[in-house]
Amino acid sequence: MKFTVLGSGSAGNCYLLQNRDETLILECGLPYKTIIKGLNFNLIDVAGCLVTHEHKDHSKAIKELISNGIDVYSSSGTLRQ
Q: Which of these, 3, 69, 1, lies nearest to 32 by C-alpha position?
């Protein structure tokens, strides 16, 4: 299991939890382009994204992830933002 920090703090939070076959994104508070670069442009192995709350430093890229076929798991309020 590999844990990668793409960003942590008020500028944006995003973490990748990866095993041999799949990746789970924890928080998506960075620009979408930064996240996919951190994934080496490989979206096929992404199992989903967990977002803890609606502050932009945790949820900035929700719409882009969803529109690119990534399942996002969060509260309904966070998903509506």
A: 69
Q: Which pair of tokens denotes residue 68?
A: 């690119």
- 72-73 β-sheet, strand order: 2-7, 14-18, 23-26, 46-50, 72-73
Per-residue pLDDT of the chain (81 residues; tens, 9 = 90+): 999 999 999 999 999 999 999 999 999 999 999 999 999 999 999 999 999 999 999 999 999 999 999 999 999 888 877
For the entire predicted model, the pTM comes to 0.94
Task: Please state which of the four CATH numbers 3.50.50.60, 3.40.50.150, 3.60.15.10, 3.30.70.2740 is assigned to the domain occupying 2-76.
Answer: 3.60.15.10
